[in-house]
């Protein structure tokens, strides 16, 4: 069946279910069959129709799976944004169901690049909202991996000679734009880690130590991320003194690698202000 024909059938089924709700249980099976379509437009409309017609957990899971399949298969960022907005709209009513698919959500952000700030922002928002005691381990591992990736993206740009282009007066290229995206993504990561650490303080050292190792060493392009990070660390030490010794030890160990003078001054102030023993 062609896409137009399938969409026509889907529209007819939706109208019948709305006009005569008693037919819903019988006709939903036909909608489920259509949800196995290879067509992206049909798959999206099937998911939308299911959400409109029923709140049954089994049916909602079919819709969620359809949305996630679209996210994995689509290369068009505009389509991904539409689907992500659909999933975000389910968060309030079906948050617990979505928690079962946290790994699929994490996989939306690809390994090797910051594909779209808008997409990554929505994914991080979704991940933060769906974090729970059941999946916090996966969420923490994901954020640590993304911290390392954000640092490597910046390093790879340095190696391609982005700074030499600037010194020659060359207009910003795709590499420079990529650096801007990397900087924005770092801010999003810091924000997400801040939120997760407040909800799950037990994850603090697991996330903050890699954050310090990666984000405090930027010089110019990432200096604002470094400043945001050091301020965040100060807040963590102040609010969660039980992690003070470990975080201070880590901070002292990387002082020599901090290149930004303002960040270094704040780091030294933190060490002096919060160290209460000679070992600290």
Automatic annotation (TrEMBL):
Domain of life: Eukaryota
An annotated GO BP: endoplasmic reticulum to Golgi vesicle-mediated transport
Location of the Clathrin/coatomer adaptor adaptin-like N-terminal domain: 3-278
Gene3D superfamilies referenced in this protein's UniProt entry, alphabetically: Leucine-rich Repeat Variant (1.25.10.10)
UniProt cross-references to Pfam families, sorted A to Z: Adaptin_N
GO cellular component: COPI vesicle coat
Protein name as annotated: Clathrin/coatomer adaptor adaptin-like N-terminal domain-containing protein
